[in-house]
């Protein structure tokens, strides 16, 4: 367990409204400049730089330098998972803005598929006996490993990596689990490459393509109107 003071420090970094807003934006996936984050958080560039320095020091974000530009992104999938988990603790209020339906249907959760589509993918694999559920993780059955391999995913390489193989990531809009971890990221990557899903112009929204509708129906028996 972390020391209470360390836990409090990390919580305080997330707890500031401006920093929480910037972290939420970075949770959408694409790296952003300090100026973009400042504009979206409605604070001055100088204030944003101060907040980002604290997030860097606290290990919640990292920066990549390309020419004259500095791009910020979340430090790791663990940070993304912690932010998603915290969103489940936010009390529901009558005045809370509803999640836009396209975002609720499909979006990326850092680097894996979430929303109705992400949950349906996990449950479809389970129904077909390709995926088994543990307390907080998933495991591929032998048939599931062969199925995922046919999709072009190197299951052996994923299982030998440092990242958790397949986490049960509780979806904040569906309140059911989708597939996180190395497997979730690999599946999302393959779905993009197969053009079953495509990114929406802004944010982390994802749309289901015609090829995707046909593919999900054909291979997993999943269909949408």
UniProtKB/TrEMBL annotation:
GO terms for molecular function: cadmium ion sensor activity; DNA binding; DNA-binding transcription factor activity; lead ion binding. CDD domains: HTH_ARSR. Residues 1-94 form the HTH arsR-type domain. It comes from the Bacteria. Transmembrane segments: none annotated. Keywords: DNA-binding. InterPro entries: ArsR-like_HTH (IPR011991), HTH_ArsR_DNA-bd_dom (IPR001845), HTH_Metal-responsive_Reg (IPR052543), WH-like_DNA-bd_sf (IPR036388), WH_DNA-bd_sf (IPR036390). The keyword DNA-binding applies. GO terms for biological process: response to cadmium ion; response to lead ion. It holds the Pfam family HTH_20. The keyword DNA-binding applies. Gene3D superfamilies: Winged helix-like DNA-binding domain superfamily/Winged helix DNA-binding domain. PANTHER family: TRANSCRIPTIONAL REGULATOR-RELATED, TRANSCRIPTIONAL REGULATORY PROTEIN. This is DNA-binding transcriptional regulator, ArsR family. It comes from Myxococcus fulvus. The lineage of its organism: Bacteria, Pseudomonadati, Myxococcota, Myxococcia, Myxococcales. The gene is ydfF.
């Amino acid at each position: 367990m972390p020391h209470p003071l360390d836990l409090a420090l990390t919580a305080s970094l997330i707890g500031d409204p401006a920093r929480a807003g910037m972290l939420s934006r970075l949770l959408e996936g694409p790296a952003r400049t300090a100026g973009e984050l400042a504009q979206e958080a409605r604070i001055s560039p100088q204030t944003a730089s101060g907040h980002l320095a604290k997030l860097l020091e606290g290990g919640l974000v990292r920066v990549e330098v390309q020419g004259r530009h500095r791009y910020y992104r979340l430090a790791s999938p663990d940070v993304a998972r912690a932010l998603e988990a915290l969103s489940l603790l936010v009390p529901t209020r009558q005045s809370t803005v509803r999640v836009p339906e396209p975002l609720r249907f499909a979006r990326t959760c850092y680097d894996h598929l979430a929303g109705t589509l992400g949950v349906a993918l996990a449950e479809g694999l389970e129904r077909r006996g390709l995926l088994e559920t543990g307390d907080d993780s998933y495991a591929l059955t032998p048939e599931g490993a062969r199925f995922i391999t046919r999709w072009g995913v190197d299951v052996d390489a994923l299982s030998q990596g440092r990242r958790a193989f397949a986490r049960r990531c509780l979806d904040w809009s569906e309140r059911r689990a989708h597939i996180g971890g190395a497997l979730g990221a690999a599946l999302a990557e393959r779905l993009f490459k197969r053009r079953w899903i495509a990114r929406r112009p802004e944010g982390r929204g994802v749309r289901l393509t015609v090829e995707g509708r046909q593919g999900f129906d054909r291979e997993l028996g999943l269909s949408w109107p």
